[in-house]
Design brief:
single chain; 143 residues; 5-stranded antiparallel beta sheet; 2 helices; 31% strand; rod-shaped
């Protein structure tokens, strides 16, 4: 008759559960990091497109004469013209508000609103001043 083996032949149930719990936490942490990375890339893409839209609208306003700027409606939603049939810019709403502060000074506020993948609405604004001599300066702000 053979000799009986003593000692452990495998893992206990508690050891397996503990190792599976640790493994699950490591995988969940990795997936969370990947998700946040994708959100950061998406946010960067949106902000780049918004800055392009705002800059484009400022440049188109810059080509107008003072009389044409004064003739613009006080507020308007601007259509985005693209050369493509389907556009990545379709999800953006561009608005313009013009406030005459003095006879030769107009405050122009441009805003772009979009919705993130997590269904959060984001609005970015650009504020500039036009005078009879042209645009002075502009800056961006986030609301």
């Amino acid at each position: 008759m053979g000799k009986r083996q003593s000692g452990r032949a495998g893992f206990t149930l508690v050891e397996v559960i503990v190792s599976m719990t640790i493994f699950t936490m490591v995988i969940a942490g990795g997936l969370t990091g990947v998700r946040q990375g994708f959100e950061l890339v998406d946010s960067s893409r949106h902000r780049t497109r918004v800055s392009q839209l705002l800059q484009s609208e400022i440049e188109s306003l810059r080509t107008l004469s003072w009389e044409e700027i004064e003739a613009l409606p006080a507020s308007a939603t601007i259509d985005i013209d693209t050369q493509f049939e389907t556009s990545a810019y379709d999800t953006y709403t561009v608005k313009r508000a013009i406030i005459a502060e003095e006879d030769d000074l107009a405050r122009v506020e441009l805003s772009v609103t979009y919705t993130t993948q997590s269904q959060k609405a984001v609005t970015l604004k650009c504020l500039t001043y036009f005078t009879q001599g042209g645009v002075n300066d502009y800056y961006y702000r986030t609301i």
